[in-house]
């Protein structure tokens, strides 16, 4: 895991907060347990109705605060299982200012606008509550490390299918499985 204390910005759909509350809380809990700071209260404590009742000036002031949080963070974690234009904007802003972004989704496919976006700082991962810890561990290591490299390569559909099966059976991200194979070979 990361060696220095990181400051992370978390975002997710406020409209679907009740539906994904358990997932949001688990993400926040795992980050805090790992000793890092996570800015997330705005997602958990404000309702869509409350936002709608704010004046235009109050909403603009809050928007400025969100931009400050993103700029001051080491990375952004976005739970995107429920589509949200606001979350998409925050992801876009974070990438524009060079922040690593972990896009999490718990069902279906990755967000359609991000699925084919090529940016080394954008990582899209399908997760379950069982695989979440490993995914966050990998992401925090990626954010913290100056020497670790992200390695991308093409694989055949047959290999991709095999990796999907192994990942589901082992309840771990494919990257963790591959890294473990390499580390095991290095120890021999």
Task: Characterise the protein shown here.
The chain has 188 residues and is α/β, with parallel strands linked by helices. It folds into 2 domains: 7-148, Rossmann fold (3-Layer(aba) Sandwich), CATH 3.40.50.450; 151-188. It has helices at 17-33, 41-45, 48-53, 56-72, 85-96, 132-144, 157-170, 174-187; strands at 7-12, 37-39, 75-79, 101-105, 122-126. Strands 2-1-3-4-5 form a 5-stranded parallel beta sheet, with helices on both faces. The two termini are 24 Å apart. The model has no long low-confidence stretch (mean pLDDT 86). It comes from Candidatus Roizmanbacteria bacterium CG_4_9_14_0_2_um_filter_39_13.
What's the topology here?
Blueprint: E1 7-12, H1 17-33, E2 37-39, H2 41-45, H3 48-53, H4 56-72, E3 75-79, H5 85-96, E4 101-105, E5 122-126, H6 132-144, H7 157-170, H8 174-187
Parallel strand pairs: 1-2, 1-3, 3-4, 4-5
Pfam family, one: Nuc_deoxyrib_tr
Protein name: 2'-deoxynucleoside 5'-phosphate N-hydrolase 1
InterPro entries: 2'-dNMP_N-hydrolase, Nucleoside_deoxyribTrfase
């Amino acid at each position: 895991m990361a060696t220095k204390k990181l400051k992370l910005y978390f975002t997710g759909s406020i409209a679907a907060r009740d539906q994904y509350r358990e997932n949001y809380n688990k993400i926040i809990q795992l980050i805090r347990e790992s000793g890092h700071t996570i800015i997330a209260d705005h997602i958990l404590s404000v309702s869509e109705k409350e936002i709608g009742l704010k004046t235009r000036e109050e909403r603009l002031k809050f928007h400025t605060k969100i931009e400050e949080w993103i700029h001051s963070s080491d990375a952004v974690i976005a739970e995107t299982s429920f589509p949200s234009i606001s979350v998409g904007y925050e992801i876009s802003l974070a990438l524009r200012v060079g922040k690593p972004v972990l896009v999490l989704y718990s069902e279906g496919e990755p967000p359609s606008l991000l699925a084919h976006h090529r940016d080394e700082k954008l990582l899209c991962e399908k997760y379950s509550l069982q695989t979440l810890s490993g995914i966050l561990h990998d992401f925090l290591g990626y954010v913290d490390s100056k020497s670790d490299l992200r390695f991308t390569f093409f694989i055949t559909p047959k290999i991709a299918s095999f990796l999907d099966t192994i990942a589901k059976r082992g309840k771990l991200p494919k990257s963790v499985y591959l890294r473990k194979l390499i580390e095991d070979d290095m120890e021999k």
